[in-house]
Amino acid sequence: MTDGHRDNLIGETLIALLKARSLSMRKLSTLSGIDTATISRIVNGKQKPKASHLERFAMHLGVPASKLLQAAGFGSMMQEEQPYTNIQATIASITEILQASKLIGHPFRLEDVEQELSKYEPYALTEEGQRIILNDFPMKLASINGAGPFIEELKRLYEQFCADEVTLEKRAIIGSALLYFVLSADVIPDYVFPIGYLDDAIAVQLVLARLYRDDAHDQPV
């Protein structure tokens, strides 16, 4: 299959998804943070998309990243990307729920969660940040008396954060999700039931995705 045909296929796929969701390229640009001109060139087959472009498109179009990766000719990446694309699909599903909800009084933006995580990364390595995680996380987790995959993922991240062998870089990334969960400055306040912890779940998924990608890049080729 030629690159030109692949570009046409991904363009046709994106056009169909945008139409089905009543989204313009400009709106997709706002949601994904990718320039409108770049999206236009990809749709029109004038620019080959990067995998990172497709992952962000998938997140906001509510489809598995594997669908777009395959349409763009990244077939060799499919098996390697499966755990990551599953995470992306989870993020897309939760984002769709939050964007459709009228309970929070303002539009939900994934970028707001990403910004909070970025802010918490360096804080997680400070003495105060580590104290908050080590002392307050177990109490916060016990207070919600929850169960399920989200809680189990939080517990695993906490165990990794406390492990002696974890690198500082990973500890900062993991700590950002734990601080997001513990501290009250959520994009969606936790008291807004039943969706108050969905942005915390997205924060966890974003961190898991980043850890997966970092681990994949560290593997020998």
Short description:
The protein has 221 residues and is mainly α.
Could you characterize the architecture of this molecule?
With 221 residues, this protein is mainly α. It has two domains: 3-100, 434 Repressor (Amino-terminal Domain); 110-218, no CATH class. The protein is 71% helix and 0% strand. The protein has helices spanning 3-20, 25-32, 36-43, 51-61, 65-71, 78-100, 110-124, 127-144, 149-162, 168-182, 198-218. Helix 5 crosses helix 6 (78-100) and helix 7 (110-124) crosses helix 11. The chain starts with a helix and ends with a helix. The model is unreliable at 1-7 and 76-80 (pLDDT under 50). InterPro entries: Cro/C1-type_HTH (IPR001387), DUF1232 (IPR010652), Lambda_DNA-bd_dom_sf (IPR010982). It holds the Pfam family HTH_3.
Q: Could you spell the SSE succession in H and E letters?
A: HHHHHHHHHHH
Query: In total, how many domains does the architecture comprise?
Result: 2
What is the alpha-carbon Rg in Å? 19 Å
Alpha-carbon distance between the two ends: 25 Å
Strand composition percent: under 5%
Low-confidence stretches: 1-7, 76-80
> Can you give the mean pLDDT?
78
Biggest sheet character = none
Total DSSP helices: 11
Decide which structural class fits the backbone. Answer: mainly alpha
Shape designation: elongated
